[in-house]
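Please decode residue identities from the backbone states below.
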């Protein structure tokens, strides 16, 4: 009986995970087109193939669903691992050369932007008119700023920042350069390759923050 209960519990957990994923996938499509404001939760439920009560049970509200979608889209998964604890951060911190650190981050950035550009642009657009979306967009901007302040501190620890830059001003530069709208303009609209975007990011940020190469 114990084995059976464990099996049933594992099965329920897997079903709950799949249901949550289906709802998030539906939201990722419909919040982009026709858009957040134009998409009722009933439409999300229908596309996900679940009852509307299930959507409310899993997420509680439309705003909470949008917030969860942004978090999952940025992270790339639904695992309870904070971004500062993820592998790409450890990879960056294992490096001692600031340009190499920027190069590793650029790789992560291009991968992340390719995954999240549609959702984040939809969120930015919705934030101009919807208070709930605006609050989530503001939260996203604040989290970006916190992450880039951490990155700026790691770069400063190498002792290679240009003398006119503090951690705060370096974080400003990093925060601006990593904006998803840069990726949208250069890659999606102008046809750059992700590799060209990465080179642009590294060259631009290094030219601003680091002394000229010897």
């Amino acid at each position: 009986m114990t084995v059976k209960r464990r099996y049933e519990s594992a099965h329920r957990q897997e079903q709950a995970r799949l249901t949550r994923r289906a709802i998030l996938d539906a939201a990722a499509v419909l919040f982009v087109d026709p858009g957040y404001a134009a998409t009722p939760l009933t439409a999300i439920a229908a596309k996900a193939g679940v009852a509307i009560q299930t959507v409310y049970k899993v997420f509680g509200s439309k705003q909470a669903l949008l917030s969860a979608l942004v978090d999952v889209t940025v992270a790339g998964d639904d695992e309870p691992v904070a971004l500062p604890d993820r592998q790409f951060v450890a990879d960056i911190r294992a490096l001692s050369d600031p340009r190499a650190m920027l190069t590793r981050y650029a790789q992560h950035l291009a991968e992340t932007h390719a995954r999240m550009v549609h959702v984040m642009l939809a969120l930015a657009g919705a934030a101009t008119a919807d208070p709930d979306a605006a609050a989530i967009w503001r939260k996203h901007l604040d989290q970006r700023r916190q992450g880039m302040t951490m990155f700026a501190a790691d770069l400063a620890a190498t002792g290679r920042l240009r003398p006119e830059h503090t951690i705060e001003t370096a974080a400003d530069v990093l925060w601006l350069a990593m904006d998803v709208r840069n990726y949208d303009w250069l890659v999606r609209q102008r046809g750059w390759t992700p590799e060209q975007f990465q080179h642009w990011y590294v060259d631009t940020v290094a030219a601003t923050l680091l002394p000229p190469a010897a």
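Observation: The chain has two domains: 1-60, 63-214.
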